[in-house]
Amino acid sequence: MSKKALLQVAGILVITILAGIFFNLSNPNRIQFIANEKIVNFSQSDSLLNALRIQDSILKAADSLKNTSNRREDSLRLSHEKHIQDSILAVNKTDSLKRIQDSLKTVNQKKEDSIKNAQNQVTDFAKPIDIKIDFAKALFDKKYRFIDARDISDYGAGHVQGALNIPFHEIEKYKDRLNDLPKDQVYITYCSSACDVSIDMAYYMAKLGFKKVYIFHGGWDEWKAAGYPAN
Length: 231
What we know:
By secondary structure, this protein is of the alpha/beta class. Among the domains are: 78-120; 129-226, Rhodanese-like domain (Oxidized Rhodanese, domain 1, 3-Layer(aba) Sandwich), CATH 3.40.250. The chain has helices at 3-26, 43-119, 133-141, 152-157, 175-179, 197-207, 219-226; strands spanning 129-131, 145-148, 164-165, 186-190, 212-216. Helix 6 (197-207) links the parallel strand 4 (186-190) and strand 5 (212-216).
């Protein structure tokens, strides 16, 4: 290629380059010939991350405190309920014991009063008094005399502990036994539950002047069934 041609090509290139530069400079979206340095600032991101971590820590702490509070409340509630139940049981137990003690006192007082009344009856009282097993046992415990009005064979088969046998069907034969007994003492007549000789014996004794005679209608059968002292 000739020197002239090279100069022409070079001129065209220069003109083209200058035209491109001019066009780029006049374009608002021009391309920067030297790239701007990028400045990256992570401070905001770090702050947000720290804030998020702090928030998570606060939430975890709050949850922990809530769980602890709930457990404490449950523990206190259970403890309170147990205390209430224990208090109720203690009160009920105390009340029950007091009611039982009061009932026993009342029963014992009634028995004592009945026995005292038996001891303090006026001398002209003659009619025998019908009694049940509970009062008969109370009189037995006070060591009062039981009179077994059954036949000797029945008496020998079993009788109230310490009872005196005076068979009513042979009363004339055993009248001396009655005459030897103090007439101002308390006596309890009985037979078996299916007989009436205890009633006959009681009224017979009353006619002789015995003032405090009781008729135990349950008799030997009921006494034995209750497992009370016997011979």
